[in-house]
Amino acid sequence: MLLAAVFAFGAARGAAAQGEKPQAKPQQPPPPQAKQPTQAQQQNAKKATPQATDTSTKIEVYGFAQGDMIYDFEQNNPDWFDVNRPSKLPSFHHEFGGDNRTWFSARQTRFGTKATIPTSGPDIKVVFDWDLFGVGLDAGQTTIRPRHMYGQWGKFGGGQLESPFMDLDVFPNILDYWGPNGMLFFRNVQLFWQPIDKPNGTRATIALERPGASGDGGVFADRIELQNIVARFPAPDLSAAYRWGTGFGYVRLSGIVRWIRWDDQLEDAFDLSGGTVGWGFSLSSNVNVSKSNVFRGIVVYGAGVENYFNDAPVDVGVKNQFGNVLTPITGEALPDFGLSLYLDHQWNSHFASAIGYSRVDIDNSDAQTPLAFKTGQYASVNVLWTPVPNVMLGTEFQWGYRKNHSDGFHSDDYRLQFSAKYSFSQKFGVSGHDITRAQ
Predict the structure, then answer these.
(1) Looking at residue 365, what DSSP letter applies?
(2) Is 41 a member of any domain?
(3) What is the largest CA-CA distance in the chain?
(4) How many structural domains compose the chain?
(5) Counting C-beta atoms within 10 Å of the first and last residue's C-beta, which end of the chain has fewer, N or C?
(6) Please, which contacts does 88-91 make with residues 24 or more away whose CB atoms are closer than 8 Å?
(7) Running DSSP on this structure, what letter comes out for residue 309?
(8) Which string of DSSP letters, residue by residue, matches 74-123?
(9) Which residues on neighbouring strands pair with residue 380, listed in sequence order?
(10) b/e string for 328-339 if b means 16 or more Cβ within 10 A?
(11) What are phi and psi of 180, to 5 degrees?
(12) Cα–Cα distances in Å, from 334 out to 5, 164, 177, 287, 338?
C-alpha cells in the first residue's frame, strides 16, 4: 500500500513539470474602491499637517568691483573729479586751471551684507553696505563711506537709508556715480513706519528724519555778525510718500516739511536770530512703455530742501531787510525746482542704453553774490554691454552746465567715461525666505 502511494505522488509531480496546470483556486471579490478626497479636503488636510518651521538666519554677501576711466574735455572741482556735478563746475573763467584732463577711479566699488531673521511674527531685515566714495571732509578721497545701515521689523524700521522724500527707482541705468542733478537723492538717518506695503508695489511710508541744513552768507559772509550765527533744529524733518503700483509701473507722490532756526550769539546792536520753514513736494513715476523700454521721471518743487536734491547748493540764503533797524538782514528758504527725465532701453540680452536730461533751478535771494549757483543742467547717453553674467562694460557721454546768479557767467563740461564692473553675490541659509533687497 505504501509503495502504491509513493508511485501516485511521483506521477502527480511529473504532470506538473510537463505543464499541466493545477486546479485554480476560487477568486475572491475585489475590495471596494476607496473614495477619492475632494480638492478642498486635500487642502484642509495639508493645512492640518504640521509644517516644519524654518528658523535659520538668511545672509547674503554681495558687491562689485568697478574701474572708471574719464576724459574731461573741460574742467570741474578736482575734489569731484570722477563725477559730473553742475554745482561743482567753475563759477568764473578757469577757476580750476586748464581744460582737458584724464581721470581714473575705483571709488564706485561696493561691498555689503543683508540678513533676514525669522521670528514668531514678521521677519527682521538688516542691511549694511558701503562704497569707497569719500564726501564731506573726505571729498576726493578713496575711503569707506557707509551707504545703508538700517533694520526693519514688520512695518517699523530705523537707521540710515533713502529718505521717503526721494524715489530711488527714477535713477537711470548710467555709469556716472552721481547722476541726474534734478532728482532727489539723500540717504538720511531716520525712524520710519510703513502702514501700507502690498505685493503689487503700493506702499505708504512716514518718517522722522535727522534735521540739517546749509546756508549762504552771500555778500555778508565775511562779516563778524554772520560768523557768530549758530544753526539750530528744534524738530526732526517730517517726510511721507505714497506709491501706487499699477500694471504699467507706478506713480509716487512724496512731501517733506522741515524747521530751520539760527541764533545770534554776538552781543551788539543787532539781533539776527530767526528761522524759516523748508518744504517740498515731488511727483515721480516709472512707466513700462514696452518690454524693452522704461521711462523714469520726477518733478520736484519746494523751498529750503536743496540738501535733499542730488546736486543743488544751500537751503537758506541771506536776504536784505534794511527797513528793520534791529534785524537788517535775515535768511530765507530758497525756492527750488528739479526735473529728471530718462529712458532705459534694452536692445537685447547683452546690450542696453540710457538717455535723458535733468535740471535744477534756484530762485536766489537778493543778498547772494553774483557768483552764486542759479541753474544746473545735466544730460547723458550710453551703451552698456553684458557679455556674460556679472560682467558689465560700457561707455557714456555726459554734459554738465552751470549758470551763475547774476553776473551772466556760465560754464559747460563734456565728458567721456569708460567703465568695467564685476559683480558677485553669495547667499547662505536660503531655504524658504527671500533676502531683503537694499534700497
Answers:
(1) -
(2) no
(3) 150
(4) 1
(5) N
(6) 89/376, 89/400, 89/401, 89/402, 89/411, 89/412, 89/413, 90/402, 90/411, 91/371, 91/373, 91/402, 91/404, 91/409, 91/411
(7) B
(8) S---GGGTTS--GGGS-SSTTTTS-S-EEEEE-TT-EEEEEEEE--SSSP
(9) 356, 398
(10) ebbbbbbbbbbb
(11) -60, 130
(12) 124, 21, 27, 31, 13
Please, which pLDDT band fits residue 26 given cuts at 50, 70 and 90? very low
Q: What is the mean pLDDT of the chain?
A: 89
Query: What does the block give as the cell for 143?
Result: 575711503
What would the mean pLDDT of 388-394 be, rounded to a whole number? 97
Q: Give Cβ neighbours of residue 418 (< 8 Å, ≥ 6 apart).
A: 68, 69, 70, 394, 395
Please give the sequence-ordered ranges of beta strands (E in DSSP) within 347-390, or none if there are none: 351-362, 373-385
Dump pLDDT digits (tens) for 88-139. 999 999 999 999 999 999 999 999 999 999 999 999 999 999 999 999 999 9
Residue 337 belongs to a domain: yes
Query: In the structure grid, which three cell numbers stand for residue 288, read together?
Result: 513700462
Predicted pLDDT of residue 429: 86
Q: Which domain holds residue 152?
A: 52-428
Pick from 30-39, 100-109, 264-273: least confident? 30-39
CATH number of the domain enclosing 136:
2.40.160.10
Q: Is residue 19 part of a domain?
A: no
The b-or-e profile of 42-59 (16+ CB within 10 A means b, else e) is eeeeeeeeeeeeeeeebb
List 262's β-bridge partners, or say none.
231, 274
Does this model's pTM top 0.90? My answer is no
Residues 6+ apart with CB under 8 A from 293: 343, 344, 345, 346
113, part of any domain? yes
**301 contacts 280 by C-beta, under 8 angstroms:** yes
User: Is it the case that residue 9 has pLDDT exceeding 80?
Assistant: no
